[in-house]
Amino acid sequence: MGRSIQIDAQGRLVHLLTTEGLPAEMILHILDTAAQFVSVNEREVKKVPLLRGKSIFNVFFENSTRTRTTFEIAAKRLSADVINLNIGASSTAKGETLLDTVWNLQAMDADMFVVRHAEAGAPHLIARNVKPGVHVVNAGDGRHAHPTQGLLDMYTIRHYKKDFSRLVVAIVGDVLHSRVARSEIHALKTLGVPDVRVIGPKTLLPADIERLGVRVFHDLAEGLRDCDVVITLRLQNERMSGPLLPSAGEFHKAYGLTPDRLARARPDAIVMHPGPLNRGVEIDSGVADGTHSVIMPQVTFGIAVRMAVMAILAGNA
Amino acid sequence: MTAPLPEPERLLEALVTQMKDRVGPETGIVGIYTGGAWVAERLHRALGVTVPLGQLAVTLHRDDFGRIGLHREARRSHLPFEVEGRDIVLVDDVLHTGRTIRAALNELWDFGRPRSVRLAVLADRGGRELPIAPDFTGAFAEMDPDEELVLTNEGGKLRLAAVRRP
Known about the structure:
The complex is a heterodimer of chains A (about 325) and B (about 170).
Chain A: H1 3-6, H2 24-40, E1 55-60, H3 65-77, E2 81-86, H4 98-106, E3 112-117, H5 122-129, E4 135-141, H6 147-161, E5 168-172, H7 179-190, E6 195-199, E7 215-217, H8 220-224, E8 229-232, H9 248-255, H10 259-262, E9 270-272, H11 285-288, H12 295-315
Parallel strand pairs in A: 1-2, 1-3, 3-4, 5-6, 5-8, 6-7, 8-9
Chain B: H1 8-19, E1 28-32, H2 35-47, E2 54-56, H3 65-68, E3 87-95, H4 99-109, E4 116-124, E5 136-140, E6 147-154, E7 157-164
């Protein structure tokens, strides 16, 4: 989905909709560019003029203050004008269609849309219907994709582990409802990680997940053995319909990441989490705040990665 | 091309002669990537400056971003000293339109407010499009308008070459 429309005939990235099918060269280009912005964010003046005069619309059909804020900070550090719209409560309620909303904003001379939507595919629909030169960034669509989160996780892994070609990476927990997990798996496979594992109960793993080239584990201790990178996912109670889980407490008993269980991984393993944390459910405070945790650096790198994506897209007018 | 291209080693000598009484040990020497960084490294050594050498990448302040986009760039600005209040000498290989120097000044200011900034260039080929002039010049090189003057570095051996624009 979206592979063909996010890259133009000259091979340039014009939208970022999914990490699926994104060539390794393109991912590395984004990571290298992000490294430049990490250094900008450490300066006295944390701002560069690349997107001066550009208008970026954060269009959130599904609420997420944190993700919206990271995109807003990234856009402002690139000197863009940022307009935040929480559509969920207004236009949709009045019956306006998704595309009518977007065309109205386009008529206000938007240069870029950052879109979050509960329905998978909504950002693709928008990307197919905007004028040439207008860019779309998927900030999370349904269970489908969250490519900037996937890319910032790749940035974090590269920062600590340097080389992807010998890593063992485990993604633990609610993979079924996780667009983050899908975006990570595609990127990890493209970057040549030889051993990507998903660990969770049968009810929270998609039935055909092996098709993506991952190894499936239902036992946490076994799955964590020799891992270099452990990515814990948030248990997404709000997205669950029906009894997929007995309770959060039961989940923690079998799949919560505790210091004891983490000891199965390599001694220099890093622990990541896309946030927000459910402490005591998928991750213990002892791990989240411990020496293996790189959860706060993930947030910091996230700004730079989003700056890189927006700067690259805006430069490919 | 109207005259043979000057030898970079000779131009470096000329620069050192001009600069040695006017650059103190606390001056920040800052080379602009790529060629300017090579020249700056040589000047830094020859002038006996004690402050570590700096480098500037100007990609994020270029004025042609809207036309050419953002190219892959692994190099980053690295200024291993306090910029605030310091005398700086900006170093580039070839001075042409002056746009790179404009971008470098903006980049430099993101790190602080220097006391002064001077400009040293290995070769000035003319053709300025901005009110920018060098303080130290290795040589003036007259070029055809459709030629680029390019500095190359093969294992430390610097060479100037004229390249015809496509």
